[in-house]
TrEMBL record:
The keyword Signal applies. Keywords: Signal. The keyword Signal applies. This is DHRS9 reductase. InterPro entries: NAD(P)-bd_dom_sf, SDR_fam. It comes from Calonectris borealis (Cory's shearwater).
Length: 193
């Protein structure tokens, strides 16, 4: 008898959880603005294409003109590309000002900080400081800089921030700047929350 009671309670719990999750879904996605970094290739490129298909107004930042042209060729007219090197503070500020003029009073509904580099994964005693500095500049400092500059627009729209990290933010497998940068992203996410 106890087994059947527990089974019934388990089914009711799953049903209740399912309904609560459905109530948390965001509706009316079309026309909402999203800014994504690192859209030349990989996850950023795929995210830009996916959000574009769903009807979002996507600002896709690319490091290279080639990446921007290739992305623009396979997406709708609604998606806009912009060149951005997240290591360059002046570039980040200019792009943030441009985004502000585009979204105006609506604000920015989503920010996806995806830009990142790996750097050489090798034992620490084989590396120089530049092997640490470059991934930290892109993966951590660049991410923080973009977030800080876009935060007023996110607040205006009561938007969301997605900072792409990895398991490397919890467990380091080798030397190099990648793992310290991802640990930093995890810490920044905690402080931002």
């Amino acid at each position: 008898m106890l087994f059947y009671v527990l089974l019934f309670l388990g089914i009711v719990s799953l049903w209740w959880h399912w309904r609560a999750r459905d109530r948390m879904k965001v509706t009316n996605l079309t026309g909402k603005y999203i800014f994504i970094t690192g859209c030349d290739t990989g996850f950023g490129n795929m995210a830009a294409k996916t959000f574009d298909k769903k009807g979002f107004r996507v600002f896709a930042s690319c490091l290279t003109e080639t990446g921007a042209k290739e992305l623009k060729a396979v997406t709708s007219e609604q998606l806009q590309t912009v060149l951005l090197d997240v290591r360059d503070s002046d570039s980040v500020k200019k792009v943030a000002a441009w985004v502000k003029t585009e979204v105006q009073s609506e604000g920015l509904w989503g920010l996806v900080n995806n830009a990142g580099i790996m750097g050489p994964p090798a034992p620490t005693d084989w590396l120089d400081i530049k092997h640490f500095r470059e991934p930290i500049e892109v993966n951590l400092i660049g991410l923080i800089n973009v977030t800080i500059n876009m935060l007023p627009l996110i607040k205006k729209a009561k938007g969301r921030i997605v900072n792409v990290s990895s398991v490397g933010g919890r467990l380091a497998f080798s030397g190099g700047g990648y793992f310290p940068s991802k640990f930093g992203v995890e810490g920044f996410n905690d402080s931002l929350r």
